[in-house]
Write a structure and sequence with these properties.
Layout lengths: L16 H13 L2 H8 L3 H15 L4 E4 L2 E4 L1 H29 L3 E6 H18 L5 E6 L11 E4 L7 H6 L1 E11 L6 E4 L2 E10 L4 H10 L2 E10 L2 H9 L4 E5 L4 H6 L9 E11 L7 H19 L6 H6 L3 E4 L2
Parallel strand pairs: 3-4, 3-5, 8-9, 8-10
Antiparallel strand pairs: 1-2, 5-11, 6-10, 6-11, 7-8, 7-12
Protein backbone atom coordinates (compact mmCIF):
# COMPACT_ATOMS: atom_id res chain seq x y z
CA UNK A 1 0.00 0.00 0.00
CA UNK A 2 1.39 3.39 -1.00
CA UNK A 3 1.21 6.05 1.65
CA UNK A 4 -0.44 9.25 0.62
CA UNK A 5 1.35 12.58 0.83
CA UNK A 6 -0.77 13.35 3.87
CA UNK A 7 0.62 10.29 5.67
CA UNK A 8 4.27 10.97 4.93
CA UNK A 9 6.27 12.89 7.56
CA UNK A 10 7.10 16.38 6.42
CA UNK A 11 9.19 19.23 7.74
CA UNK A 12 6.66 21.78 6.48
CA UNK A 13 5.03 21.67 9.91
CA UNK A 14 8.10 23.36 11.34
CA UNK A 15 8.15 27.16 11.56
CA UNK A 16 10.48 28.90 9.10
CA UNK A 17 14.13 28.86 10.17
CA UNK A 18 14.16 32.67 10.14
CA UNK A 19 11.30 32.74 12.65
CA UNK A 20 13.06 30.31 14.96
CA UNK A 21 16.20 32.43 14.69
CA UNK A 22 14.26 35.50 15.80
CA UNK A 23 12.80 33.54 18.71
CA UNK A 24 16.27 32.32 19.77
CA UNK A 25 17.68 35.86 19.81
CA UNK A 26 14.72 37.29 21.76
CA UNK A 27 14.85 34.38 24.22
CA UNK A 28 18.60 34.79 24.69
CA UNK A 29 18.51 38.57 25.15
CA UNK A 30 15.16 38.75 26.96
CA UNK A 31 14.14 41.82 25.00
CA UNK A 32 12.46 42.49 21.66
CA UNK A 33 14.22 45.83 21.39
CA UNK A 34 17.69 44.38 21.95
CA UNK A 35 16.91 41.48 19.61
CA UNK A 36 15.87 43.94 16.89
CA UNK A 37 19.16 45.77 17.31
CA UNK A 38 21.21 42.56 17.03
CA UNK A 39 19.23 41.34 14.02
CA UNK A 40 19.23 44.72 12.26
CA UNK A 41 15.44 44.77 12.08
CA UNK A 42 12.70 47.00 13.39
CA UNK A 43 10.91 46.35 16.67
CA UNK A 44 7.70 45.78 14.73
CA UNK A 45 9.24 43.21 12.39
CA UNK A 46 10.54 41.15 15.31
CA UNK A 47 7.19 41.38 17.10
CA UNK A 48 5.39 40.14 13.96
CA UNK A 49 7.73 37.16 13.74
CA UNK A 50 7.00 36.23 17.36
CA UNK A 51 3.27 36.65 16.81
CA UNK A 52 3.49 34.38 13.75
CA UNK A 53 5.30 31.75 15.83
CA UNK A 54 2.67 31.91 18.58
CA UNK A 55 -0.17 31.60 16.06
CA UNK A 56 1.50 28.64 14.34
CA UNK A 57 2.03 26.80 17.63
CA UNK A 58 -1.32 27.75 19.14
CA UNK A 59 0.41 28.65 22.41
CA UNK A 60 2.41 31.57 23.74
CA UNK A 61 6.10 31.26 24.56
CA UNK A 62 6.41 34.57 26.41
CA UNK A 63 4.47 36.21 29.24
CA UNK A 64 4.16 39.91 29.84
CA UNK A 65 6.24 41.26 32.70
CA UNK A 66 5.76 44.97 33.30
CA UNK A 67 6.71 46.70 30.07
CA UNK A 68 8.77 43.73 28.91
CA UNK A 69 8.43 39.99 28.34
CA UNK A 70 9.81 36.83 29.89
CA UNK A 71 9.91 33.21 28.77
CA UNK A 72 7.22 30.96 30.20
CA UNK A 73 7.73 27.22 30.65
CA UNK A 74 6.83 26.50 27.01
CA UNK A 75 9.28 29.14 25.87
CA UNK A 76 12.05 27.76 28.06
CA UNK A 77 11.54 24.30 26.60
CA UNK A 78 11.57 25.62 23.03
CA UNK A 79 14.62 27.78 23.74
CA UNK A 80 16.63 24.73 24.83
CA UNK A 81 15.65 22.82 21.70
CA UNK A 82 16.26 25.70 19.29
CA UNK A 83 19.57 26.76 20.85
CA UNK A 84 20.90 23.20 20.62
CA UNK A 85 19.67 22.87 17.03
CA UNK A 86 21.36 26.09 15.94
CA UNK A 87 24.59 25.03 17.64
CA UNK A 88 24.49 21.69 15.79
CA UNK A 89 23.72 23.52 12.55
CA UNK A 90 26.66 25.87 13.03
CA UNK A 91 29.04 22.98 13.77
CA UNK A 92 27.75 21.04 10.76
CA UNK A 93 28.13 24.05 8.50
CA UNK A 94 31.72 24.61 9.63
CA UNK A 95 32.43 20.91 9.19
CA UNK A 96 31.17 20.96 5.60
CA UNK A 97 33.25 24.04 4.78
CA UNK A 98 36.35 22.50 6.33
CA UNK A 99 35.87 19.26 4.39
CA UNK A 100 35.28 21.17 1.17
CA UNK A 101 38.42 23.25 1.59
CA UNK A 102 40.50 20.15 2.32
CA UNK A 103 42.83 22.21 4.49
CA UNK A 104 41.72 22.29 8.10
CA UNK A 105 42.49 19.31 10.33
CA UNK A 106 39.51 18.80 12.62
CA UNK A 107 40.65 17.82 16.11
CA UNK A 108 38.27 16.95 18.94
CA UNK A 109 39.35 16.83 22.57
CA UNK A 110 38.05 17.62 26.02
CA UNK A 111 37.48 21.30 26.76
CA UNK A 112 39.87 21.03 29.70
CA UNK A 113 42.74 19.61 27.64
CA UNK A 114 42.17 22.24 24.95
CA UNK A 115 42.10 25.18 27.36
CA UNK A 116 44.80 24.09 29.77
CA UNK A 117 47.31 22.36 27.51
CA UNK A 118 46.73 22.40 23.76
CA UNK A 119 45.73 26.00 22.96
CA UNK A 120 48.54 27.61 25.03
CA UNK A 121 51.06 25.62 22.93
CA UNK A 122 49.58 26.13 19.48
CA UNK A 123 51.63 29.29 18.88
CA UNK A 124 54.79 27.18 18.64
CA UNK A 125 53.12 24.79 16.20
CA UNK A 126 51.94 27.63 13.97
CA UNK A 127 55.35 29.31 14.02
CA UNK A 128 56.87 26.10 12.63
CA UNK A 129 53.95 25.45 10.25
CA UNK A 130 52.34 28.78 9.30
CA UNK A 131 50.19 27.18 6.59
CA UNK A 132 48.66 24.63 8.95
CA UNK A 133 45.00 25.00 9.89
CA UNK A 134 43.56 23.30 12.96
CA UNK A 135 39.86 23.37 13.81
CA UNK A 136 39.12 22.43 17.39
CA UNK A 137 35.96 20.91 18.79
CA UNK A 138 35.90 21.10 22.57
CA UNK A 139 33.31 19.02 24.35
CA UNK A 140 32.67 16.53 27.11
CA UNK A 141 33.99 12.97 27.14
CA UNK A 142 30.47 11.69 26.43
CA UNK A 143 30.03 13.74 23.24
CA UNK A 144 33.57 13.79 21.87
CA UNK A 145 32.92 11.15 19.19
CA UNK A 146 29.88 13.04 17.87
CA UNK A 147 31.89 15.97 16.50
CA UNK A 148 32.81 14.47 13.12
CA UNK A 149 36.50 15.06 13.83
CA UNK A 150 39.47 13.73 11.89
CA UNK A 151 41.40 13.08 15.10
CA UNK A 152 40.24 12.59 18.67
CA UNK A 153 42.58 13.14 21.61
CA UNK A 154 41.57 11.14 24.68
CA UNK A 155 42.94 8.90 27.40
CA UNK A 156 39.90 6.83 28.37
CA UNK A 157 39.26 4.46 25.46
CA UNK A 158 37.04 2.01 27.36
CA UNK A 159 33.97 2.89 25.28
CA UNK A 160 35.74 2.90 21.90
CA UNK A 161 35.52 0.08 19.40
CA UNK A 162 38.28 -2.50 19.11
CA UNK A 163 39.23 -1.05 15.71
CA UNK A 164 39.53 2.47 17.17
CA UNK A 165 41.68 1.23 20.04
CA UNK A 166 43.90 -0.71 17.66
CA UNK A 167 44.39 2.36 15.47
CA UNK A 168 45.03 4.75 18.37
CA UNK A 169 48.47 6.38 18.48
CA UNK A 170 49.89 6.61 22.05
CA UNK A 171 51.08 10.13 22.82
CA UNK A 172 52.13 10.13 26.47
CA UNK A 173 51.54 8.45 29.84
CA UNK A 174 48.85 9.82 32.14
CA UNK A 175 49.19 10.26 35.91
CA UNK A 176 46.22 10.86 38.16
CA UNK A 177 45.94 12.03 41.74
CA UNK A 178 43.48 13.76 44.07
CA UNK A 179 43.88 17.52 44.52
CA UNK A 180 42.28 20.00 46.86
CA UNK A 181 42.61 23.52 48.23
CA UNK A 182 45.45 23.91 50.77
CA UNK A 183 43.01 24.59 53.61
CA UNK A 184 40.68 21.69 52.81
CA UNK A 185 40.40 19.18 55.67
CA UNK A 186 41.54 15.61 55.07
CA UNK A 187 43.32 12.80 56.88
CA UNK A 188 45.85 10.44 55.31
CA UNK A 189 47.12 7.53 57.39
CA UNK A 190 47.76 3.83 56.79
CA UNK A 191 47.00 4.23 53.08
CA UNK A 192 43.55 5.56 53.88
CA UNK A 193 42.44 9.02 52.72
CA UNK A 194 39.46 10.40 54.64
CA UNK A 195 37.63 13.58 53.70
CA UNK A 196 34.17 15.09 53.37
CA UNK A 197 33.36 15.30 49.64
CA UNK A 198 34.66 13.48 46.58
CA UNK A 199 34.40 15.40 43.30
CA UNK A 200 33.81 13.09 40.34
CA UNK A 201 33.78 13.53 36.58
CA UNK A 202 30.33 12.47 35.40
CA UNK A 203 31.57 10.66 32.28
CA UNK A 204 34.82 9.06 33.48
CA UNK A 205 33.57 7.61 36.73
CA UNK A 206 36.00 4.69 36.67
CA UNK A 207 38.94 7.03 37.31
CA UNK A 208 38.53 7.10 41.12
CA UNK A 209 38.20 3.31 41.29
CA UNK A 210 41.21 2.84 39.05
CA UNK A 211 43.30 5.28 41.06
CA UNK A 212 42.55 3.49 44.33
CA UNK A 213 43.58 0.16 42.82
CA UNK A 214 46.80 1.55 41.33
CA UNK A 215 47.85 3.75 44.25
CA UNK A 216 46.88 1.36 47.02
CA UNK A 217 45.10 4.21 48.80
CA UNK A 218 41.49 3.74 49.92
CA UNK A 219 39.21 6.76 50.07
CA UNK A 220 36.54 7.34 52.71
CA UNK A 221 34.15 10.21 52.04
CA UNK A 222 30.64 11.21 53.07
CA UNK A 223 29.44 12.85 49.84
CA UNK A 224 30.12 12.87 46.11
CA UNK A 225 29.50 15.74 43.70
CA UNK A 226 29.65 15.29 39.93
CA UNK A 227 30.59 17.71 37.14
CA UNK A 228 30.58 17.17 33.35
CA UNK A 229 34.01 18.73 32.70
CA UNK A 230 37.38 18.26 34.36
CA UNK A 231 37.85 22.03 34.37
CA UNK A 232 34.78 22.35 36.59
CA UNK A 233 36.09 19.60 38.88
CA UNK A 234 39.38 21.49 39.24
CA UNK A 235 37.66 24.80 39.99
CA UNK A 236 35.37 23.10 42.51
CA UNK A 237 38.39 21.63 44.30
CA UNK A 238 40.19 24.98 44.30
CA UNK A 239 37.08 26.59 45.79
CA UNK A 240 37.19 24.15 48.71
CA UNK A 241 34.29 21.90 47.72
CA UNK A 242 36.28 18.66 48.04
CA UNK A 243 38.95 16.47 46.45
CA UNK A 244 38.98 16.03 42.68
CA UNK A 245 40.87 13.32 40.82
CA UNK A 246 42.68 14.91 37.87
CA UNK A 247 45.47 14.27 35.41
CA UNK A 248 48.70 15.93 36.51
CA UNK A 249 49.19 18.07 33.38
CA UNK A 250 45.85 19.75 33.93
CA UNK A 251 46.86 21.25 37.28
CA UNK A 252 50.54 22.06 36.77
CA UNK A 253 50.07 25.79 37.30
CA UNK A 254 47.75 25.37 40.28
CA UNK A 255 50.22 23.06 42.03
CA UNK A 256 53.16 25.36 41.29
CA UNK A 257 51.32 28.41 42.64
CA UNK A 258 49.99 26.60 45.72
CA UNK A 259 46.37 27.09 44.71
CA UNK A 260 46.00 23.30 44.86
CA UNK A 261 47.88 20.55 46.67
CA UNK A 262 48.15 16.83 45.88
CA UNK A 263 47.92 14.93 49.20
CA UNK A 264 48.92 11.58 47.68
CA UNK A 265 50.96 12.65 44.70
CA UNK A 266 50.11 11.11 41.33
CA UNK A 267 49.85 7.51 40.19
CA UNK A 268 50.59 6.37 36.62
CA UNK A 269 47.63 4.82 34.80
CA UNK A 270 48.04 1.98 32.29
CA UNK A 271 46.05 4.07 29.81
CA UNK A 272 47.87 6.47 27.51
CA UNK A 273 46.84 9.83 26.19
CA UNK A 274 46.18 8.88 22.58
CA UNK A 275 45.27 10.27 19.18
CA UNK A 276 42.52 8.25 17.53
CA UNK A 277 42.21 8.68 13.73
CA UNK A 278 38.60 8.76 12.59
CA UNK A 279 38.63 7.83 8.94
CA UNK A 280 41.07 8.59 6.14
CA UNK A 281 41.50 12.28 7.01
CA UNK A 282 42.88 11.27 10.37
CA UNK A 283 45.75 9.53 8.62
CA UNK A 284 46.84 12.23 6.19
CA UNK A 285 50.28 13.81 6.14
CA UNK A 286 48.91 16.81 8.02
CA UNK A 287 47.37 14.57 10.68
CA UNK A 288 50.62 12.62 11.10
CA UNK A 289 52.59 15.85 11.41
CA UNK A 290 50.20 17.11 14.11
CA UNK A 291 50.45 13.81 16.01
CA UNK A 292 54.24 13.92 15.79
CA UNK A 293 54.22 17.46 17.19
CA UNK A 294 51.94 16.39 20.06
CA UNK A 295 54.22 13.47 20.91
CA UNK A 296 57.40 15.54 20.79
CA UNK A 297 55.93 18.37 22.87
CA UNK A 298 54.49 16.06 25.51
CA UNK A 299 57.75 14.09 25.72
CA UNK A 300 59.89 17.21 26.05
CA UNK A 301 57.73 18.52 28.88
CA UNK A 302 57.78 15.18 30.69
CA UNK A 303 61.56 15.16 30.61
CA UNK A 304 61.73 18.44 32.44
CA UNK A 305 61.76 17.92 36.18
CA UNK A 306 58.64 19.42 37.66
CA UNK A 307 58.71 20.68 41.26
CA UNK A 308 56.79 18.48 43.65
CA UNK A 309 54.47 20.01 46.21
CA UNK A 310 55.48 19.72 49.84
CA UNK A 311 52.21 17.99 50.66
CA UNK A 312 52.79 15.33 48.02
CA UNK A 313 56.26 14.64 49.40
CA UNK A 314 54.93 14.32 52.92
CA UNK A 315 52.27 11.88 51.74
CA UNK A 316 54.96 9.33 50.89
CA UNK A 317 55.88 9.04 54.54
CA UNK A 318 53.82 7.44 57.30
CA UNK A 319 50.89 9.82 56.92
CA UNK A 320 49.63 13.36 56.55
CA UNK A 321 46.60 14.97 58.08
CA UNK A 322 44.77 18.24 58.09
CA UNK A 323 42.20 17.94 60.84
CA UNK A 324 38.70 17.14 59.71
Amino acid sequence: MVNSAHDRPTRSRLPPLSTLHVFEVVARLGSVTRAAEELGRTHGAVSRQLRSLHERAGISFFDREGTGIRLNRHGQALRDVVAAAFEDLEQGWQRVLAQASGEALHVACSATFAMRWLVPRLAGLYRENPELKIRLSMTSAREIRQQGADLIIAWDLASYSAADVEGAVPLAPVNFGPVCAPAYAFSLADRRLSFETRIAHEFTSRAWTGWQELSGVTTLQRFERGFPHTHLCIEAAAAGLGLALVEQRMVTEELASGRLIAPCGFAPFPDKLSAIPMGARGQTKTARMFVDWLTATLTAEAERKQPESRTAKAARHAGTSQDL
